[in-house]
């Protein structure tokens, strides 16, 4: 095994074999000696070392942590040596001939009027910056968004400060010859600019004042804008980290899901949807990957922006893509069996018929929910309405819906219709028959239970209870106020909503209920709601 040593190159720590280090050291010394008389020697060496460090970093991975001789040889072939070029041109080696540099967006400080954005875009696409500036002027004066978009790009796009960055901006090879040429051109431009300014001091003094003032204002806006974006980025990182923690915690805890509509309400554990723990775990992992992976990538990008980190983790994007696609695979694996488990629906029906009412007025009310005690088990209640309850033997998944119809005869009829969805009609029928629902009829008072019960061992299969009450003609009906959340369908002559019908008296007519009291109040409420809906649609 060869001996290794540790070196610092452009601020990066490398482990390198001693023979490779000797060759690299001699190479850097020869370059330094070649540029010894150059005015920008230090800047040239910093840029060269930075480029070498970038190339060597690409050679390292999880299985390789040491720089070897072949890596140094490749660096020399890419960068070129001092002996292979003169001040004006360099003879490229065969290896260097196929090495290309990827273009990157930078603001061009050598061709700027304000911030160098247009110059940078022109350099990237290799076009005349005049056309870019004209397009920006049109956007500014016609569309009104050009100025804000320019400021945004000024904040996001970095400035090409070093010769290497300027070469990347134009897509040129980053080697010793081009770096040296770039620095020489920078010094030449600086000399020419200084000469022009000194020769026209009096003529340009007035213009220079306003140029500098405008530049200071834009620099201030740039600084404030960048600080603002970083502050927003920090808040976004905290929010995204919270989302990731929630997703991770969901893997190790029970999850609840609620479905709420006018005709159906329930709350249940998410695991009740799945036939076995494997499908449930696969579903939770799929959600973690499909949501968590994009969030993690956003957090990574925001952290790089906040701390000005330029180096990217190798293979992070590939690993993230693989995990995200795996999430889709897990979702398909878990959802396909789920759809099969809910493919058939059937009903179980019980009926109370020919019940003779002793009074002309029928009172329909919902039983009051008793206060909880320690033996009741777990419950979820909203507005005094049970969404979910569970004890050692049974559980409640929702509450019944109540439908009012006209009876075909002179007697009261009540139909309790239980339904369920399962893989087969036989299984669905059995699940529907397992539903328990209680109601009491005493004199002319119908007292309904606010919940239906299923055995604890039954999984969720969209179990539902509907109570259909058929009222004889010319009978009065009074709905108690606690029926507000349970009354689902009660056709009437003024088209009143069900929750506006409670606490009032109605008469069963030939086809539907007839309003007997406070009818004008209900109509006004209905008219006001329609007027509000029209206003919202117009907006």
Structure overview:
With 539 residues, the chain is of the alpha/beta class. It is 47% helix and 20% strand. It is built from 14 helices and 20 strands. It has a 6-stranded mixed β-sheet with strand order 13-14-7-17-19-20, with no helix packed on it. Strands 6-12-16-11-18 form a 5-stranded mixed β-sheet. It has a 4-stranded antiparallel β-sheet with strand order 8-9-10-15, with no helix packed on it. A hairpin with a 3-residue loop joins strand 9 and strand 10 (394-396). Mean pLDDT is 78; it is low at 86-99 and 261-266.
Major β-sheet profile:
6 strands, mixed
Number of strands: 20
Summed over residues and divided by their number, the pLDDT gives a mean of: 78
Helix content: 40-55%
Portion in strands: 15-25%
Shape: elongated
Structure annotation, total helices: 14
Give the N-to-C terminal Cα separation: 78 Å
Structural class: alpha/beta
How do the strands of the widest beta sheet line up side by side? 13-14-7-17-19-20
Radius of gyration: 39 Å
Q: Which residues sit in consecutive blocks of at least 5 with pLDDT less than 50?
A: 86-99, 261-266
Q: What's the arrangement of secondary structure elements?
A:
Layout: E1 4-9, E2 12-17, H1 18-34, H2 41-58, E3 66-67, H3 69-79, H4 94-97, H5 117-125, H6 129-143, H7 146-156, H8 163-170, H9 176-199, H10 201-251, E4 256-260, E5 265-269, H11 277-306, H12 316-341, E6 344-355, E7 361-366, E8 378-382, E9 385-390, E10 394-396, E11 401-406, E12 412-422, H13 425-433, E13 439-442, E14 445-448, E15 453-455, E16 464-471, E17 476-479, E18 487-490, E19 505-508, E20 513-515, H14 519-538
Parallel strand pairs: 2-3, 7-14, 7-17, 11-16, 11-18
Antiparallel strand pairs: 1-2, 4-5, 6-12, 8-9, 9-10, 10-15, 12-16, 13-14, 17-19, 19-20
Helix pairs in contact: 1-3, 2-3, 2-9, 5-6, 7-10, 8-9, 10-11, 11-12
